[in-house]
Design brief:
Elements (H helix, E strand, L loop, with lengths): L18 E6 L2 E6 L4 H7 L25 E2 L18 E3 L3 H16 L15 H8 L26 E3 L9 H10 L4 E4 L6 E4 L15 H5 L5 E3 H6 L4 E6 L8 E7 L2 E7 L12 H5 L14 E2 L8 E2 L2 H19 L4 E5 L5 H15 L4 E3 L6 H11 L16 E5 L3 H4 L1 H12 L3 E5 L8 E2 L2 E2 L2 E3 L6 H14 L5 H7 L2 H12 L5 H8 L3 H13 L3 E5 L1 H4 L4 H14 L10 E3 L6 H6 L6 E2 L3 E2 L3 H11 L11 H10 L4 E5 L3 H4 L3 H10 L2 E6 L11 E4 L8 E4 L4 E5 L11 H12 L8 H11 L8 H7 L2 E2 L45 E6 L24 E4 L1 H6 L7 E5 L4 E8 L7 E5 L7 H4 L16 E7 L5 H20 L4
Parallel strand pairs: 1-4, 14-15, 14-25, 16-17, 16-21, 17-20, 21-22, 25-26, 26-27, 31-35, 32-34
Antiparallel strand pairs: 1-2, 3-4, 5-8, 6-7, 9-10, 10-11, 12-13, 12-27, 18-19, 23-24, 28-29, 29-30, 31-36, 32-35, 33-34, 33-36
Helix pairs in contact: 8-25, 9-25, 9-26, 10-19, 13-16, 13-17, 13-19, 16-17, 22-24
Bound molecules: iron/sulfur cluster (3 copies) and FE2/S2 (inorganic) cluster.
């Protein structure tokens, strides 16, 4: 395979509907108005030399290498900043132009190290290419003259280096940081010869605002900004397009390889979710895949007190199957179950639920989406008829008012966060509803119009107050509601929501948000043309998570903000395949495509295809499995890709349940927290080692492609298949495309999805069937997906959480994530990303800290009704008085020792976001942490004793 570079058209595409005809070097060209002459030329294969232009950023016109001649025009305009005009006649090559270009190149080269042969960019340097393109053969300037050749390198970033001696001050990096990433970390200091690029105020990269997205590295035409992996291993040889395995943005990447080694991940320009951008995780944090902690040999043991024993695949699988069968014989069919993960591919998740339903003979299958977005599934299904977000990401570029509720896009969904910031810089209005001051509230050139700093746990009261303003101030879009929604339900809702108890003045005492701000924000959203709502786990992970989702859906319907671009209700999914794992039927009550297991017609469809009789009663949800294990009725569990022993709430209860089980089978990359309680370990494969698909937050199904062999020998779907066969339920797939063909055959919204289609379109958004064979970017355009096609308003009474602050527990703890780390951190903690975040900290307001005599970096104990843990304090005004905040990326932090077992009324999604706590200065780790440390140490020793992993 050769390394086909993506074409660089020099300047960004324009989308004007007016087309312009011109002639370039005698060829006729047609381009949308506003297109540069450079891009128009590139579109017919004429590459005009360039240095300061690249198609990811707006042109700058500084190097003048791209000069052309235009008939009737004076001088030599730069083609990157000259727009096409009707009838224009352009010449891109002649002697005069060649002389000018050669002269320019000579100037550049005279101040550039002449070490091409040993330069790490050799073969991938535009300066080198251009010297060749303009035929530069000698440099007449004195190389001993004044130059920048001794400028000092900045190696502070763990992933890329900055060598200013090679900088040609083209400013592509500066523009990439501003336009693509929106961080504005780079500046050009000085003028003329003295001008130079630097992060912040002449700081090192790591001390600056830089978030290490890598956009500048990608934009740099020289070796000035360069990936350290390329410096170390040399230029890649071939590339494979695949999809990021981290967050729900689902960025498309070219994995650039040398043999079976990933040299770098380069965001793919054609990626529909990311358009060539990425964040620090997807671009740089792939080293975990080959980390020394990977376990690549299957292992078994009788008891968790025994050392692990390395065994063959055959032995591990047959032991696992015999244990599961033994347990079913002793304790009943329902005594075992399976858990899949939103980190798995669609095909893997589909197979796990099939194994459980058809092979185990029960419906005890659940997924980690239970603990994040299950309320989204429930709330949107009830109101709109489909459990998914309504838009694609690009839709935000048409939004006029953006409302962000309980989400932190710049940390949690960084590439989408950058797109949103771009729209905000263009002038869209912003309402942030969050207890904490997330970055979006104020970032360069972006300031929220309203930041409604509510008390954690009062979302429903606030959303009701906003809806109250919409209804009582006559801001309802009556045409939309009359035409598109069930009117009787709407009338009932209007009466309910107009009640004075929902007025902002009445709810102010509950939410803590000034009534005037609520009124103003509501008016802005309802009247600002296109209003788009984006929300995250700050909405769902509450005892009323489903109610808030329904409240958001009501609000969007009442204001007519659905069914077109620029509007909608958009859940931001945390992990890469949260949408997909839900779509694939990994919940105990639903088959793929959200069809209830009790529905005879659906069940018959699956029974006929799978050749087995299926259970019609829903199975156990994750928390029910733990309860049943504690009660002694649930004894065996197959967990693929999920770390329940770290990520689930009230962790001491989870650990107890795991200890009670007789056979816990963990299929994963590392000896994660759950594996410390396991009896069988099956080595899983990373996203680089398998084929499959992920579905992102826009319902976009994107390809995951194998770029190296699975280190443990099998792709994950193959392992599930082996286990199923050993259990006596035959599966015979030879490739994940066959699994997708089965999904399409059995799931109406996937009916036209196939690997061929994904290969030809790049990706496809479901629903994708006969009616929409190329997929559906915007949902509910003409009618809602509910039977009858009408949207349903539902009542959303606010009920305060049981988790109340008291004198003993006067503060509210809420949790979230940070850009550089991902979820339980099993992957990102095994990369250089720890340079940004090496421990979880407790953010506390200066007043609360002062009251308790706490200063920055102090060890503080955080105690709730469930347990106690200890973290270091970070004094911060991002949190309001009375609220403390932490991330949950490190197991030893034990954030889930303190979270309670309260959960959403409809879906059991845990209430991670509200825990009443007390905080006090302490001098040592908590009892739980000490026990955890000892247990963890013991388990690592048992691993060492019994195995010799790679
Ligand atoms: S890595 Fe990203 S944030 Fe950092 S300077 Fe480059 S473009 Fe800006
Ligand atoms: S660092 Fe690279 S992109 Fe930035 S100005 Fe220098 S040469 Fe251009
Ligand atoms: S983590 Fe998310 S935003 Fe970052 S590269 Fe991966 S998919 Fe994109
Ligand atoms: S590429 Fe046009 S001026 Fe530099």
């Amino acid at each position: 395979m050769s390394m086909n570079k993506e074409q660089d058209f020099g300047t960004p595409a324009r989308t004007a509907s007016t087309l312009v005809n011109l002639e370039i070097d005698g060829f006729q060209v047609t381009a949308p108005a506003g297109t540069s002459v450079m891009r128009a030329a590139a579109s017919i294969g004429i590459d005009i030399p360039k240095l300061c232009a690249t198609d990811s950023v707006e042109p700058f016109g500084s190097c003048r290498l791209c000069v052309v001649q235009i008939e009737g025009a004076r001088g030599m305009p730069a083609s990157c900043i000259t727009p096409v005009a009707e009838g224009m006649k352009v010449v891109t090559q002649n002697k005069k132009l060649a002389d000018v270009r050669r002269g320019i190149m000579e100037l550049y080269i005279s101040d550039h190290p002449l070490d091409c042969l040993t330069c790490s960019a050799n073969g991938d340097c535009e300066l080198q290419d251009m010297a060749g393109a303009v035929g530069l053969r000698e440099v007449r300037y004195n190389p001993q003259g004044e130059n920048h050749l001794n400028a000092v390198k900045d190696e502070s970033n763990p992933y890329f280096s900055f060598d200013p001696s090679k900088c040609i001050v083209c400013s592509r990096c500066v523009r990439a940081c501003e336009e693509t990433q929106g961080t504005f970390a780079l500046t050009i200091d000085g003028r003329g010869f003295d001008s130079k690029v630097s992060p912040g105020q002449n700081e090192a990269f790591m001390d600056s605002e830089c978030v290490s997205c890598g956009a500048c590295v990608q934009a740099c035409p020289t070796a000035t900004l360069m990936e350290k992996s390329v410096i170390e291993h040399g230029q890649p040889e071939h590339a494979v397009v695949t999809t990021c395995a981290y967050c729900g943005v689902g960025c498309s990447f070219r994995a650039e390889m040398k043999g079976d080694q990933v040299i770098r991940m380069v965001p793919h320009k054609d990626g529909k979710a990311n358009h060539g951008h990425s964040c620090v995780k997807g671009r740089f944090a792939f080293g975990y895949a080959t980390h020394k902690d990977r376990i690549t040999q299957p292992m078994i043991r009788k008891s968790i007190k025994d050392p692990w024993q390395e065994v063959s695949w055959e032995e591990a699988i047959s032991y696992a199957a015999s244990e599961l069968k033994r347990i079913q014989a002793n304790y009943g069919i329902g005594a075992i179950g399976g858990i899949t993960s939103s980190r798995c591919t669609n095909e893997e998740t589909y197979l796990v639920q099939k194994l459980v339903r058809a092979g185990f003979g029960n419906n005890n299958v659940d997924t980690c989406a239970r603990v994040c977005h299950s309320p989204t599934g429930y709330g949107l299904k009830q109101t709109f008829g489909e459990s998914s977000g309504t838009q694609n990401f690009d839709s935000v570029m048409k939004a006029d008012v953006i409302m962000v509720i309980g989400a932190n896009p710049t940390d949690g969904h960084p590439v989408f966060g950058s797109l949103m910031k771009k729209r905000l810089r263009q002038g869209a209005k912003l309402v942030v509803i969050d207890p904490r001051g997330i970055d979006l509230v104020k970032t360069p050139h972006v300031k929220a119009d309203y930041h409604l700093k509510l008390r954690p746990g009062t979302n429903v009261a606030l959303i009701n107050a906003i809806a109250h303003v919409v209804v009582t101030e006559n801001l309802v879009d009556q045409d939309f509601v009359q035409e598109r929604c069930e009117t009787a339900a709407f009338e009932k809702w209007t009466t309910f929501i107009a009640d004075p108890r929902h007025a902002p003045e009445a709810t102010e005492a509950v939410t803590g948000v000034p009534a005037a701000d609520v009124r103003a924000a509501a008016r802005l959203y309802a009247t600002g043309a296109n209003g788009a709502i984006y929300y995250g786990l700050g909405v769902t992970e509450h005892s009323q998570g489903s109610t808030t989702v329904i409240g958001i859906a009501n609000l969007a319907m009442a204001t007519g903000n659905l069914g077109r671009e620029g509007v909608g209700v958009n859940p931001l999914r945390g992990q890469n395949n949260v949408q997909g794992s839900c779509d694939m039927g990994s919940f105990p009550h639903e088959f793929p495509g959200y069809r209830h297991v009790s529905d005879t017609e659906t069940r018959t469809l699956f029974e006929n295809d799978w050749n087995v009789i299926l259970e019609s009663e829903p199975g156990l949800r994750i928390p029910n499995m733990f309860d049943a294990a504690s009660d002694g009725t649930f004894k065996g569990l197959y967990v693929e890709g999920e770390d329940i022993a770290q990520s689930d709430p009230d962790i001491q209860h989870v650990h107890h349940a795991l200890r009670e089980m007789e056979c816990v089978i963990v299929q994963d990359l590392f000896l994660n927290e759950t594996a410390k309680f396991a009896h069988v370990f099956l080595p899983g494969s990373s996203f680089l080692e398998k084929n499959g698909t992920f579905t992102n937050a826009e319902r976009r199904i994107s390809p995951v492609r194998k770029v190296m062999k699975p280190l443990g020998g099998y792709e994950d779907w193959e392992i599930t298949q082996l286990l199923s066969n050993a259990m006596g339920y035959p599966m015979n797939y030879s490739h994940p495309s066959e699994i997708m063909a089965e999904i399409a055959r059995l799931t109406p919204s996937f009916a036209s999805v196939s690997y061929e289609k994904i290969d030809s379109l790049g990706s496809v958004q479901w629903p994708c069937n006969d009616e929409t064979p190329d997929g559906t970017p915007t949902m509910h355009e003409q009618s809602f997906m509910r039977p009858g096609g009408k949207g349903l308003f539902m009542l959303t009474e606010y009920v305060a959480t049981q988790e109340r602050t008291t004198r003993m527990f006067p503060l509210i703890l809420t949790t979230g994530r940070i850009l550089s780390q991902y979820n339980v951190g099993a992957q990102t903690r095994r990369t250089e990303n720890v340079a940004w975040h090496s421990e979880d900290r407790l953010e506390i307001h200066p007043h609360d800290a002062e009251d308790r005599g706490i200063v920055n970096d102090d060890w503080v104990g955080i105690k709730s009704r469930s347990g106690e843990t200890v973290l270091r304090a970070l004094i911060s005004e991002r949190v309001q008085p009375g609220v403390v905040y932490t991330t949950f990326h490190f197991p030893e932090s034990g954030a889930n020792v303190i979270t309670t077992d309260n959960s959403d009324w409809a879906t059991n999604c845990p209430e991670y976001k509200v825990t009443a706590v007390q905080v006090a200065k302490v001098s040592q780790s908590s009892e739980w942490q000490q026990k955890y440390e000892a247990f963890s140490q013991q388990q690592l020793e048992l691993l060492e004793q019994g195995s010799h992993h790679a």
